[in-house]
Amino acid sequence: MSQADIGLIGLAVMGENLVLNMANHGYTVAVFNRTVSKVDAFMEKRAAGKSVIGTHSLEELVTALKKPRRIMLMVKAGPAVDAFIEKLLPHLDPGDIIIDGGNSYFPDTIRRTKELEANKLLFIGTGVSGGEEGALKGPSIMPGGSAAAWPHVKPIFQGIAAKVDGVPCCDWVGSNGAGHFVKMVHNGIEYGDMQLIGEAYALMKHALGMSPPELHDVFSEWNKTELDSYLIEITAKIFTKKDDETGNYLVDMILDAAGQKGTGKWTSQVALDLGIPVTLITESVFARCMSALKDERVAASKKLRGPRATFHGDKTKFVEDIRQALYASKICSYAQGFSMMRAACAEYGWDLRMGDIALLWRGGCIIRAQFLNRIKEAYDRKPKLANLLLDRYFKKAVSKAQTSWRRVIKEAIRLGIPVPTFSAALAYYDGYRTEDLPANLLQAQRDFFGAHTFERIDRPRGEFVHVDWLT
User: Which of 16, 38, 183, 199 is catalytic?
Assistant: First the structure.
């Protein structure tokens, strides 16, 4: 007898935790894993006594589900998703719903939506953010795809999502690949946030010689300001952790070589396709690439010399300057991300509600922060806002921080401490506010060597001309 409300394939930790989250909210979940021994282990341990049904084949999974069947894939993005979809197709009926909850590349989601709708099935590609803890206790969920599927999964998704002020951090984002696109931008912003915090840390550690306990105190205080966020909160906690093996602070024992899973890179690549300068996010990706060159950097440090300067100013004032620089840079990062989503609306025919997207990120996800309420307010004031920097709150905040921001970057350059995202953010701000950029000379060069033509300031936009530069 069909009795499960939803099925889930893929019992890695994220998949298991989502199942338990659903079960804890009153839903019966049927589960399957390609290695079926994992199903048995899950049923015997973590799912014991829960409203979870273990199955040993896709046919058994499908049979256990109420109609329309809802099946969520929590498998590795890429070929594995297509493989499971192909295996499921013979067992499904028109109107059944397949949900991809992994970090899939949004063009794949656009393709899958089209293909499954052609087979009279419905498809949802949804971003799920918050890591293992969020999956269990309440993630941020960003669904998109076949709009007809949303009413069938809305109660489940909004039931298990994180809540802020009673509002679930889950709502319908848009058609085909919109959900996974928004998750991709979220991850790009996350890259930027983490690198900005890292640069603030580097300045306080190397320029000011601050110890982990001192850094803990600073980040704890910052979390009471406009920077109040999950990442600032956990950063403060990181500086309190001692290493069991050496007794040193654990952060000082961690190799400075960062990993990445590719979603930050996707954000930069897609931004290039859209013609949107997400310079801070891109620099944060490159910063991870630079960190991975650990052996080369160690060798180079013995041969390449920088300035021998030391910091001699007011330490307390400089810490506040860093805080202001961090906030201004963060504003630029989000301005870039939301500009990218705005461009995607025109490119892909989506109607992304920017203020509502900000609300989706207030809880459950890694970039959750009070700051997101300000973004919601900005788009409430002006739904078609071209750039967050033009909103009255953010314009005032950046203006207030600007002197500190420039002072921090100037001091970092003087001391030879790399701050690529702080610098990229300021360059973006200065570029965006500059009426006359040197692209006129660039266009002259292009026309000189390649006859690429150019527009004139005394003629209508869109009218291109070429001149013979040698006469």
Answer: 183
The CA distance from 397 to 199, in Å, is 20
Query: What's the CA gap between 289 and 282, in Å, rounded?
Result: 11
Whether 190 sits among the annotated catalytic residues: the reply is: yes
Rounded Cα distance, 55 and 359, in Å: 37
Average model confidence (pLDDT) for the chain?
96
Tokens 């991975």, residue?
292
404/399 Cα distance (integer angstroms): 10
Residue 27 carries which DSSP code?
A: -
How confident is the model over 378-399, as a mean pLDDT? 97
Q: CA nearest 281: which of 333, 338, 339? A: 333
Known catalytic residue at 45? no
| Catalytic-labelled residue, pool 16, 190, 199, 283 | 190
Q: Which amino acid is at 460?
A: P
d(CA 166, CA 375): 19
> Residue 148 corresponds to which amino acid?
A
pLDDT of the residue at 260: 73
Digit-coded pLDDT (tens) for 198-210: 999 999 999 999 9
Q: Is the pLDDT of residue 104 over 80?
A: yes
